[in-house]
Amino acid sequence: MLGVLRIVSALIFMAHGTQKILGFPPSERTSQMFSLSWIAGVFELIGGVLLVLGLFTRPVAFVLSGVMAFAYWIAHAPRSFYPVLNGGDAAILYCFLFLYLVVAGPGRWSVDGMLGREGKV
């Protein structure tokens, strides 16, 4: 289930990046190039792809956990103290989910496992 959690959460996470960088799915959330939101989208897109593949899982998850903590405190917390009101629920969940992947590793079906960097696949 660890591998499934990694893959499914990374696919959903990637959608935030494709929305900000590629404008898909279409919304008002497309970001201006080199804005903070756009840079976050780059992390979401590239980091999401790496996590789906299970490639460099632990260091990528560590960086993405920090990105999500940063996103929460910069973009969400100033709106309201309560996550349900400031829209930061997902940022908090991703932050701790990625922190879990740092400790737990990629699980099954990972490139890291196939390359022998983690336990048996």
From TrEMBL:
It is found in: Cell membrane. The chain crosses the membrane at residues 33-53, 60-78, 90-111. Its main location: membrane. Keywords: Cell membrane, Membrane, Transmembrane, Transmembrane helix. It is a multi-pass membrane protein. InterPro entries: DoxX, DoxX-like_oxidoreductase. This is Putative oxidoreductase. It comes from Kaistia hirudinis. The lineage of its organism: Bacteria, Pseudomonadati, Pseudomonadota, Alphaproteobacteria, Hyphomicrobiales.
